[in-house]
Specification:
Blueprint: H1 10-26, H2 31-34, H3 37-48, H4 63-84, E1 97-101, H5 107-115, E2 125-130, H6 133-144, E3 151-156, E4 168-174, H7 177-183, H8 187-202, E5 203-214, H9 217-232, E6 236-239, E7 261-264, H10 270-278, E8 285-294, E9 304-309, E10 314-315, H11 334-337, E11 343-350, E12 353-360, H12 361-365, E13 372-376, E14 380-384, E15 391-394
Helix pairs in contact: 1-4, 3-4, 4-5, 7-8, 8-9
Length: 396
């Protein structure tokens, strides 16, 4: 187990900075159309959210929307993945295959190239599936401009179709399933039941699966449901979960909490922030819900209590308390942090269910969403959090 969402190293930041100029070079926009780019980004955002039911299935085949996706959504998704992927210990070896479902513009391979540079000289095979040929072709053009020994095969098709080749070391689905449980009107439960066996069958027996979704309540519910289905198939949760017990944040009810993580976007390229501001879609923080599952070693069963920190910090015992699925959207301001003696809390997930970790302000502030802690079970106190009913651990 390890902490999640560590800051990018200097090389990754530089490579991410170079991504937007590379896209401009490979897919130039005439000057008179560049002024329209922020409006195209805003329009694509609407089609992906509020206007989803009226959206054309081949929307990314339209040049203005394709351009907006490549310059806004692709870099932001690469940034999110680049903060997550280094924490996942996937042991790639020469000749391994990665099957990427709903690959879009090859977001996952591009993110791996940026944040795992040691893999560039390793012969890997990427099988990238998407229903829109134009977005696949664009992604392949970008990836081919990034030097590596990788073999990339793009496949135009839908989830569930046969993919030739040996089972994959890693099967990924990035921002795919929210499209399905909205567009098919089947809901997260039926989508999880239907597609968990498909995902598992694509992976090698000792392979793993990575599913990443937006950090919204419906996605958090889906991740919890998919986790349950994969457990039934022998695929244990490896992260963010620290255990294989029942999920303490199943979601699905109005006002229910959901598992997701939020982190600041200061490291994202300045040019990307400028475009986001111009489009009216500024991003101070990025959010994500995800599941990495496989057949790895069983969770420890000794006296250690393994915790994954979920929420932002909040003042303990006040009306400002925020639930684990209620990120405040930004860190506590100075006036809310109070003096070093003031107690703050964060919610964490464990095999005992939800736990409130509290303590002096500096100690709790030093923890970030995604932090991994190992404590003795004796650290649990008799005190119970009045808001959530969670047991309490005091980091004195």
């Amino acid at each position: 187990m390890t902490n999640l969402f560590s800051p990018l190293n200097e090389q990754a930041r530089q490579d991410l900075e170079k991504l937007l100029p590379l896209i401009d070079k490979l897919f130039p926009i005439p000057g008179r159309f560049r002024l329209q780019l922020p409006q195209d980004v805003a329009e694509l955002s609407r089609q992906l959210t509020s206007e989803r039911p009226r959206r054309d299935a081949g929307y990314l085949g339209q040049k203005p929307l394709l351009s907006a996706y490549l310059r806004y959504f692709l870099p932001w998704n690469v940034f999110r993945l680049s903060r997550l992927l280094p924490a996942l210990d996937v042991p790639f070896t020469e000749g391994d295959a990665i099957t990427d479902l709903g690959s879009g513009p090859l977001t996952l391979p591009i993110a791996l190239w940026i944040c795992r540079p040691e893999l560039r000289d390793l012969p890997l095979e990427f099988r990238c599936l998407d229903r829109t040929g134009a977005i696949l072709d664009a992604g392949k053009t970008i990836l081919q401009a990034l030097p590596s020994r990788w073999k990339v095969r793009t496949i135009r098709g839908s989830l569930g179709q046969r993919i030739e080749g040996k089972p994959a070391r890693l099967v990924t689905a990035i921002n795919l399933f929210n499209e399905l449980f909205w567009d098919e009107h089947k809901g997260p439960h039926l989508v999880a039941e239907r597609y968990a066996p498909i995902l598992s069958a694509l992976a090698a027996e000792d392979g793993s699966l990575l599913i990443v979704e937006p950090g919204i309540p419906r996605s958090g519910e889906f991740i919890s449901l998919l986790r349950t289905q994969l457990l039934l198939l022998g695929r244990r949760p490896l992260a963010p979960c620290t255990h294989a017990q029942a999920c303490p944040l199943p979601g699905g009810r109005r006002g229910a909490k959901w598992c997701h993580f939020a982190f600041e976007t200061d490291e994202a390229p300045e040019a990307l922030h400028r475009l986001s501001q111009a489009a009216g879609l500024p991003k101070e923080r990025a959010t994500v819900s995800f599941l990495w599952a496989g057949t790895g070693a069983k969770m420890p069963e000794d006296a250690e209590l393994s915790l994954r920190v979920l929420s932002d910090p909040f003042p303990v015992g006040t009306a400002q308390t925020a639930g684990p699925g209620r990120s405040s959207g930004r860190p506590l301001s100075r006036d809310r942090r109070g003096s070093p003696e003031r107690e703050l809390g964060r919610y964490a997930c464990s095999e005992k269910g939800l736990i409130l970790v509290k303590g002096p302000s500096p100690k709790v502030q030093s923890l970030a969403a995604g932090s991994f802690l190992e404590l003795k079970e004796t650290a649990l106190e008799r005190e119970v959090d009045p808001k959530s009913g969670a047991p309490v651990i005091n980091l004195k």
